[in-house]
Write a structure and sequence with these properties.
By secondary structure, the protein is an all-beta fold. The chain has no helices and 8 strands. Its main location: secreted.
């Protein structure tokens, strides 16, 4: 334990390769990373809002592959209040009832005309 005349030994930041520096947090008793690459968390081990974990990344670094990918939810097929978010693990956007695909960019079978103006996302026959 350090004090004003005797400092603690430095410890490496545990930033998972997504930060070049960290700041000591006295309350937590450890370093908190200054994350980059659209990562977040004390150790840069999660993705920022609007991004999800790259499934190709796995448990090891893949050269040239980003750790987090942008959600890129379709503005036409995604629920408006969830446009800039997606499931952090799968990247699945919150699709309107008649929209489909990870990014909500297509109409479900038997529906057509994907549009932001349509509450359900696509046109369809009303029964």
């Amino acid at each position: 334990m350090g004090n004003s005349t005797h400092s603690n030994e430095c410890e490496a930041c545990l930033c998972n390769g997504h930060a070049t520096s960290c700041v000591y947090d006295q309350v937590k008793g450890r370093g908190v990373c200054k994350c980059s690459d659209n990562t977040a968390g004390d150790n840069c081990d999660t993705c920022m809002p609007g991004y999800y974990f790259n499934p190709r990344y796995g448990n090891s670094s893949v050269p040239g592959e980003p750790f987090c990918l942008a959600c890129n939810c379709s503005s036409q097929g995604t629920v408006p209040t969830a446009l800039n978010t997606c499931n952090v693990t799968t990247g699945q956007c919150a699709c309107k009832e008649r929209a489909t695909q990870r990014d909500c960019s297509e109409c479900r079978d038997t529906f057509w005309g994907l549009s932001a103006e349509l509450e359900l996302g696509c046109n369809g026959k009303f029964l």
